[in-house]
């Protein structure tokens, strides 16, 4: 995720939205028979594509943020998700000083770092044949999703593929030696493969990779 270099802000995305709503700067969402404003919280998570916002922002790791309220980056027995790091989110909403992790996609920098590791580890390097799958939630193709094939050397470009919103739901080697999985409801990407590969991912400085034995 990313944080303003100027420091923390007390206001949350939910508070900001309610202030704009009260000032007439936002239109209320109307759901028949349900008071959305009274029964919902604006979390602030990005949906899909995420990248460095530019000057004035810095990358913020889960472990760095978790250390502030004295939490674990991921609660034992659970997946990292929008429910994680509750101590850093007042009332369930992120502070506006933080750009939260995207759901269903890595940020662009992490996606590039992941591809770099896969290329370096694979015997065929950038020429490694692979397949990418964009699930229904990201592709809009609710019958089957969208599947494309190519080489690892071109996988970084999948971040801007017209069928997706960020990194693909799955990417796997044609020889099935490894596979990645990004679920729309999660704020992380799972990588399954040989021990040597997972160790290289954990050692990559640009990545925040954790081994979760319960996943």
Structure description:
The protein is of the alpha+beta class. The protein has six helices and eight strands. It has helices spanning 13-22, 36-39, 62-67, 108-121, 136-139, 195-203, and strands spanning 2-4, 57-59, 98-99, 129-134, 146-151, 170-173, 179-182, 189-192. The strands form two sheets. Strands 5-4-6-7-8 form a five-stranded antiparallel sheet. Strands 2-1-3 form a three-stranded antiparallel sheet, with no helix packed on it. Strand 6 (170-173) and strand 7 (179-182) form a beta hairpin.
Biggest beta sheet attributes: 5 strands, antiparallel
Low-confidence stretches: none
What's the arrangement of strands in the largest beta sheet?
A: 5-4-6-7-8
Share of β-strand residues = 5-15%
Q: Give the helix tally.
A: 6
Order of helices and strands: EHHEHEHEHEEEEH
Tell me the Rg in angstroms: 19 Å
Features:
alpha+beta; 215 residues; single chain; 15% strand; 5-stranded antiparallel β-sheet; 8 strands
């Amino acid at each position: 995720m990313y944080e303003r270099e100027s420091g923390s802000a007390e206001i949350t995305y939910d508070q900001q939205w309610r202030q704009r709503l009260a000032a007439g700067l936002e239109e209320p969402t109307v759901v028949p028979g349900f008071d959305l404003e009274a029964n919902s919280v604006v979390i602030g998570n990005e949906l899909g594509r995420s990248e460095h916002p530019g000057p004035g922002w810095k990358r913020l790791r889960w472990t760095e943020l978790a250390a502030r309220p004295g939490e674990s980056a991921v609660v034992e027995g659970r997946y990292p998700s929008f429910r994680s790091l509750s101590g850093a989110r007042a009332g369930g909403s992120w502070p506006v000083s933080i750009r939260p992790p995207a759901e269903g996609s890595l940020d662009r920098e992490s996606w590039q770092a992941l591809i770099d590791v896969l290329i370096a580890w694979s015997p065929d390097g950038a020429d490694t044949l692979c397949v990418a799958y964009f699930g229904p939630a990201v592709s809009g193709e609710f019958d089957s999703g969208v599947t494309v094939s190519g080489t690892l050397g071109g996988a970084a470009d999948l971040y801007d593929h017209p069928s997706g919103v960020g990194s693909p739901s799955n990417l796997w080697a044609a020889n099935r030696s490894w596979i990645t999985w990004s679920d729309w409801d999660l704020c992380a990407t799972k990588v399954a493969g040989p021990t040597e590969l997972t160790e290289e991912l954990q050692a990559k400085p640009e990545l925040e990779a954790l081994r979760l034995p319960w996943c």
